[in-house]
Design goal:
21 strands; five-stranded mixed beta sheet; alpha+beta; 647 residues; 28% helix
Length: 647
């Protein structure tokens, strides 16, 4: 559901409005002098003002030992904070606030506008305590090119979350929606009219344009959970459309019932099964009903006029349209071109289903899952969740995926399988569309992709590369705490490019809160004449946990054993700037030293001495890999941990 409201939405509690014409004050960027010597500090509050003008003017600053002592004393006075610690047992309601930005912000620019404290209840107390927090993207910020970002709070080491609270369901997240400047007059709150319509089915069909059509407002449960718009007793769209979509998915595409139901619940949530559905906010904006919009686009072969006479074009008008609410100009251009080439209406359901089929060829991660899910309730849940996570990618992606999985069981799966099912009591834990190697060329890497998905909280995710003697060459364990989690979070720790020639096994293991464990194990070879092969898999347990044909350690002899000698970094570590960390805009020798270290660690990054978005993003990846707070601020704690690394 690629909605583009002009707001930040904190699960219906906090609304942050972004209006590109209005800018907010941002801390002036400074350069890091090559000769700065500083005292290490990670505390952002330790930044001093005295040398700011000199830094901005590009003057070199050399701290003496006495200057450092004075700065430390000033810092102690200026950053007096009461140390907060305890267990979070609840969250206080948040007030509505407005924030503004100019242009497209980087993650660090965006997060600086978010609340720097969160009101919580500690240790069961009924008194509210404000704890300092920062915000980080739930997904890979740089890799997200749709219309929203999900952000979650990060608090200090002295604060922990009660075992009775769930990170996804109870912790407030902020969802950031992008919006074009021309739509800045849209109200930040989503009203009932802005939601996808849910139609009450009567006598097998309904008229989507009828005045008596009922709308179901998006219900909000906990701060982090959005309950999807589809309910057990309410279907959208006509019976004819529903049947056509099901027959295409199971016939032309060859999906089993479970996979088809998973796709259908997503289409239902996106468009109400209506191929001529225009995103509701754009019906209001253009003054056109779904049918009038479709007719105008068809007549002008993409070009049309709104009710006020303003010229628009289907390719670039930014309104979500059709079964899957295609929104971006590239995708809408492709959809229009297909309709024109087939000489069909832009709202033709058969044409759109063919377009969906074509698009999915470029989403092999999703397609692999759809083709391999078991034809049972678990398969229906996983198909719905994976299609939501990796194809539709709506706001509040993880919680929405879980919601659609549950709704799939009580709606379409119940209808087409003839049996009811529940998402409670049985775990559907699976590894979906993950990549694994079969042959790797020495010095070449491989991207870790895919999802681990469950109807219960995923408690742990472990990735390992094991050599022929059974020893783990690289290993990383993460604690997701959500019902879906990107395997790419293991990527930086799985150093395929650093492997010597030999035979290895790649192992992914996940465990959820119900106690179910799923493991996928694949043998592969590394050689100078090999070529990296990215193969997609799907695994639950038992027969679906397949192993590739390459030899596993048990099939090899000691002659193929690979010994890895780990060495510490021999280059020059960077000196931390006076403020206590590197930030975007810094430049100089120390930034170059930082980049050289990150490159040694295994990241693809230029060593140009300029701390730009790529460097900040890489710092976050590195921090995630070594287990420190991934805030993009390379400071004392990160440096200390970096100096202990051997590879």
């Amino acid at each position: 559901m690629r909605n583009k409201f002009i707001c930040f939405a904190l699960s219906a509690m906090l609304i942050l409005t972004f209006i590109p014409q209005i800018s907010f004050a941002v801390e002036e960027e400074t350069s890091v002098s090559d000769d700065i010597t500083v005292e290490y500090t990670e505390d952002p509050a330790a930044e001093t003002i005295e040398d700011g003008a000199a830094e901005a003017a590009g003057e070199a600053i050399t701290e003496t030992e006495e200057d450092t002592d004075d700065a430390a004393a000033e810092t102690a006075e200026e950053s007096e904070e009461i140390s907060v610690s305890g267990v979070i047992t609840g969250f206080a309601p948040l007030e509505t606030s407005d924030y503004y930005y100019e242009g497209n912000p980087e993650e660090e620019e965006l997060t600086v506008s978010l609340p720097d404290t969160l009101s919580v209840y500690l240790d069961g107390s009924e008194e509210v305590t404000d704890i300092p927090v920062s915000w980080t993207a739930v997904e890979d910020f740089d890799a997200t090119d749709f219309y929203f970002y999900s952000m979650k709070p990060v608090w200090g080491e002295g604060i922990s979350l009660s075992d009775e609270l769930n990170e996804m369901a109870d912790v407030p997240w902020i969802t950031v929606y992008k919006q074009e400047p021309e739509n800045s007059d849209i109200e930040p709150l989503m009203t009932e009219e802005e939601l996808d319509p849910i139609y009450t089915e009567e006598d097998g069909s309904i008229d989507p344009e009828a005045e008596d059509v009922s709308l179901s407002a998006m219900a909000v449960g906990t701060a982090g959970e959005i309950i999807d718009t589809v309910t057990e007793d309410s279907y959208a769209g006509t019976a004819a459309n529903t049947a056509a979509i099901y027959n295409y998915l199971t016939g032309t595409m060859g999906l089993n019932k479970a996979a088809a139901c998973g796709v259908m619940i997503n289409i239902n949530a996106e468009s109400g099964m209506s191929p001529n559905n225009l995103q509701n906010t754009y019906n209001t904006k253009f003054g056109l009903s779904d049918s009038a919009y479709t007719s105008a686009v068809d007549k002008g072969k993409g070009a049309y006029k709104t009710s006020s006479g303003k010229s628009q074009n289907f390719k670039t008008d930014s309104g979500g349209y059709g079964l899957c609410q295609w929104t971006s100009s590239g995708r809408k251009t492709n959809l229009l071109n297909r309709a024109l080439s087939e000489k069909k209406s832009i709202g033709n359901i058969t044409m759109q289903l063919g377009f969906l089929n074509t698009e999915l060829q470029g989403y092999q991660q999703v397609l692999t899952t759809l083709r391999k899910v078991p034809n049972n309730a678990a398969g229906a849940y996983i198909a719905a969740a994976e299609f939501c996570l990796a194809f539709e990618i709506p706001a509040n992606t993880v919680s929405t995926a879980a919601s659609r999985g549950k709704n799939c069981l009580s709606n379409y799966w119940k209808t087409y399988s003839g049996s009811s099912a529940s998402a409670t009591g049985t775990s559907f834990l699976s590894l979906c569309g993950y990549s694994y190697p079969t042959a790797v060329k020495t010095g070449k890497g491989m991207d870790v992709i895919g999802y681990v998905v469950s109807n219960y909280t995923v408690k742990s995710l472990t990735g390992k590369i094991v050599n022929s003697s059974g020893k783990a060459v690289y290993s990383k364990t993460l604690s997701p705490g959500t019902t879906a989690y990107k395997l790419s979070n293991l990527d930086s720790a799985m150093k395929f490019s650093a492997l010597s020639a030999g035979t290895y096994t790649y192992i992914i293991t996940a465990k959820d809160s119900l106690g179910k464990t799923v493991t996928a194990s694949h043998g592969f070879k590394v050689s100078s004449s090999g070529s990296t092969t990215k193969t997609l898999g799907f695994a639950t347990t038992g027969s679906n946990a397949s192993t590739s044909t390459a030899p596993t350690p048990a099939q090899t002899t000691s002659t193929s054993q690979t010994t890895t000698v780990k060495k510490a970094y021999t280059g020059t570590f960077p000196k931390i700037p006076k403020r206590g960390y590197f930030k975007k805009g810094d430049k100089g020798t120390q930034v170059k030293n930082l980049q050289k270290f990150l490159k040694w660690y295994g990241y693809s990054i230029s060593t140009d001495g300029r701390c730009g978005p790529k460097t900040i993003s890489t710092i976050k990846k590195f921090q995630k890999a070594i287990g420190v707070k991934a805030d993009g601020r390379f400071g004392k704690k990160t440096l200390k941990k970096a100096k202990t690394i051997k590879k």
